[in-house]
């Protein structure tokens, strides 16, 4: 909302400079978003008096105008059609900075002396657009008769506009008078509301036996409707002062009657509507619910279809307005209107919001009604508007009024036990100061003494325009926002502390992040929304399925109803697609990219149920294992990361998480290259999959790397396998024994099978069996391979004797020969 | 064979002189070994040879002679050890000198990973609030409107709801009273969930992802991280809120940081404020980052609204509490001088690697 300080000054003396006033309002909750100076840039522009106008000798459409401004008297050429002798106009001299009146975009120009069709022009008479006041450029701006000739225009017309952001709770500040009341309270100045002559309460316009001017058919949605019949109006352009104020507040001038309704809405916060009464069937209106499907042509000449949750204003035959939103075209005030019915009503905020949102018509009126107005505003606002219309139309008179107000809203009483102030704020203020502060806000407080030793209570009368104040906490806010939050001390909470509990899953997630970052991977965080085509890139057959169920979830329950981007349709059920997408983007400028993400995926359940948010880990690697460096051999440089780089990362992760019982089994998940993918299982349970992305899948993401590594793990399943261990095995006290075993097995025998056979045979003394050599070729028959393992033996309570080692060796050799048909190599 | 002690003694002295003179000339380990064999070798060393020649002496002379030889042998051995240390040290020094490297060459590369900046700041906040006795908890990102709005004193259709442009999920009912499913617009639903789940005292912070159905620009993301704080007990005051936020900003931005409250409206707090901290960049003097105001707006806060306390079954006449919410990206942007929030989710390594060295 725009608040011109010139208007505000009508109602309150401003004791603070604009910047300080803005700061004070903002601190108190009425946020000033910007301070705009109107006319600050007007140099060399004065109030001029038009002494004479004559036709330009060489051009029919141009006039030569003699203008005086103080001691200056000059002749300017103008094409303005509305120029006339005796007018007061803004006169710009050479050198003035103005806006280009002919440009569609705001454009500054400097006025130069010029010769137009052979006649020198020594200045310019200005339109509102040229002064930056509005877009009006049809004619020059005509100043009020009392404008002081020769005065710099800035001194006469300059203004400061506060641009306010009014929060939904502050509907009472949504007007010039409301802000004036706020300023008065904050600066301890008296409020000077405008003098409003009261309206007669009479039915004269209709016969006493006739139905009243206004009636309410839907009292549940309309608390009040005031009608004023005015006869003998003359519709005309509004005077400059009125147009000027509307323009300063950001509204366009229409005609004097419509402008008055807008003016009063800005000043009082109460929207009003004026009907051409001669166009109303029966000359009366009724507030009723719309018929389903009822149609009306609104003022903007769009035919709109209404529903029964909307309110309309009807005459005897049809809807003539959408209540609180927009009037109808049929009864619009026109040049020939002489009889007016002025309506000031109080419509239900939800009905108006429903209509405003359904019809997408956020009019100034609807925005105000939508916040819930005080019904008691209507009568005074109607009286103020009537007085203004009578001023502007000397022949007009009130022929009748009506006030349908079945259940008047009355003041509310709210008790504030004095101790509440200290209990909520941690500080208290003298009772007298509190009462004084509340009084400034028109909150009349009476001190009721408490029983012996008890705090007193403030009984506060809350005026009806403060519908936001319903309980003691609301009053505490009023007190502190006026006294100032800077008076609050800083303390820390006392008393009981909470149980020092840490979320183990959260700690696990952080531990996982640390391990992976220490392993050289970068953590990414991607948007949690995706679309199905993005998921389908993960499959070679164009149809993504999950790796755990090999099925595609039904996304109804995780699909967005409204979205901002075409690739934001569903909550992502996997992190894999984002991993590959991010990998691809980064490979454009990095030879090696190693990424991970630890975030939830969203697994749909039934429609209407919240999805499962499952913490998940993804890893993606691609590019060179090592770049050129002093320490790498030519053969190593540029070699691609492969499956075993990823497996090493996974092994390090599970080892550092302290997880035992890990097995790796081949995976045939379709995102991977067959034969280069594994399932991670712990104690038999599937935790996740990892492997080299299928080349087609990599290509789907625009990845050109030789090999692309991809993994996804159910982090919560992984977490469930972490056992908290206390103590140690003590194995470190005795020197372990290390022995090498070299075996020749069939090509098809997995290294893991040999490892497992070794460990089983020498249980529990064999701690580990590490494959350190793999050989095919001379001395190894075709179809066979030679594996060399380094096996570590140890016992917790003794150093192993040579005899024991020899026994273990024989057990291992026996098992390998028997179970795997292995040949032992010397 | 000569006889007579003095002659033999002279012989010993001559040999000692020869041994020590030659020893002094030796500079390398090979020569030292040769010298050792020549003079101190057990079999053919000249000093041992003296003892072997002792048979020619009279039994009375032998002890004296033997003692003299042994004493000499000890001295020569000591001289040898000393020389050996010197020569060996010099050899080591020479070897090490030959082994020197250009220490300005780069080290062997070790892949260096990073944590996402939102992770870093979330952890930092969690650590700060742990010291203040707050548990860190998390909650669902996909929420019911009951928790996201209704229980927080934001009724259906109320204009206050307009503040939160919302993504709806699943099929949307047409009835205004239905409990819909949305992407949470703030972390505040966890206020209601936490209070429903437990009795006071409550002290929690809730970091997490939030969603707003609004266009993105340099300072607004549709998907972002927020941190909620909630403390409820008997005697929790707004001064405690100010003190808690002051401690937080001091830890984040430095010990001279101050907090300012301005009255503001959030339906789930009363009184409600927005809070700012003195600008971490200029210290409050006014700069580009704080747009000349000296203050950085960080978030919203206030005393938990009595209606919210009632909604979760707490008696507002007995319990009071404070709540606050702040944007995690905003803190990162202030701390690390980032001017475009969209950097966070572009996941460009050139951006992420900026955080390799900036941990707390």
TrEMBL record, chain A:
Chain ranges of the B5 domain: 409-490
Binding site for Mg(2+): 468, 474, 477-478
Annotated Gene Ontology cellular component terms: phenylalanine-tRNA ligase complex
Residue ranges constituting the TRNA-binding domain according to the UniProt record: 39-154
GO MF annotations, alphabetized: ATP binding; magnesium ion binding; phenylalanine-tRNA ligase activity; tRNA binding
The enzyme's E.C. designation: 6.1.1.20
Alphabetized SMART domains for the sequence: B3_4 (SM00873), B5 (SM00874), FDX-ACB (SM00896)
Record carries keyword ATP-binding: yes
Cofactor binding, note field: Binds 2 magnesium ions per tetramer.
One GO term of the biological process aspect: phenylalanyl-tRNA aminoacylation
Keyword DNA damage: no
Cofactor: Mg(2+)
Compartment annotation: Cytoplasm
Superkingdom of origin: Bacteria
Subcellular location, principal: cytoplasm
Pfam families hit by this protein: B3_4, B5, FDX-ACB, tRNA_bind, tRNA_synthFbeta
Enzyme class: ligase
Key words, A-Z: Aminoacyl-tRNA synthetase, ATP-binding, Cytoplasm, Ligase, Magnesium, Metal-binding, Nucleotide-binding, Protein biosynthesis, RNA-binding, tRNA-binding
InterPro entries noted in UniProt: aa-tRNA-synth_II/BPL/LPL, B3/B4_tRNA-bd, DNA-bd_dom_put_sf, Fdx_antiC-bd, Fdx_antiC-bd_sf, NA-bd_OB-fold, Phe-tRNA-ligase_IIc_bsu, Phe-tRNA-ligase_IIc_bsu_bact
Oligomer and partners: Tetramer of two alpha and two beta subunits.
PANTHER family referenced in this protein's UniProt entry, alphabetically: PHENYLALANINE--TRNA LIGASE BETA SUBUNIT, PHENYLALANYL-TRNA SYNTHETASE BETA CHAIN AND LEUCINE-RICH REPEAT-CONTAINING PROTEIN 47
NCBIfam families: pheT_bact (TIGR00472)
Listed name of the protein: Phenylalanine--tRNA ligase beta subunit
The organism of origin for this protein: uncultured Thermomicrobiales bacterium
Gene: pheT
UniProtKB/TrEMBL annotation, chain B:
Domain Aminoacyl-transfer RNA synthetases class-II family profile: from-to ranges: 121-354
Keyword line: Aminoacyl-tRNA synthetase, ATP-binding, Cytoplasm, Ligase, Magnesium, Metal-binding, Nucleotide-binding, Protein biosynthesis
EC number: 6.1.1.20
Cofactor(s) it depends on: Mg(2+)
Keyword NAD attached: no
GO molecular function, one term: magnesium ion binding
Main location, first listed in the record: cytoplasm
Cellular component terms (Gene Ontology): cytoplasm
Compartments it resides in: Cytoplasm
InterPro entries: aa-tRNA-synth_II, aa-tRNA-synth_II/BPL/LPL, Phe-tRNA-synth_IIc_asu, Phe-tRNA_ligase_II_N, Phe_tRNA_ligase_alpha1_bac, Phenylalanyl-tRNA_Synthase, tRNA-bd_arm
Catalysis: reaction(s): tRNA(Phe) + L-phenylalanine + ATP = L-phenylalanyl-tRNA(Phe) + AMP + diphosphate + H(+)
UniProt-annotated binding residues for Mg(2+): 270
Signal peptide limits: none
Methyltransferase recorded as keyword: no
GO biological process: phenylalanyl-tRNA aminoacylation
The record's free-text note on cofactor binding: Binds 2 magnesium ions per tetramer.
PROSITE patterns per record: AA_TRNA_LIGASE_II
Family statement drawn from the similarity comment of this UniProt entry: Belongs to the class-II aminoacyl-tRNA synthetase family. Phe-tRNA synthetase alpha subunit type 1 subfamily.
Quaternary structure note: Tetramer of two alpha and two beta subunits.
Protein name: Phenylalanine--tRNA ligase alpha subunit
Gene it is expressed from: pheS
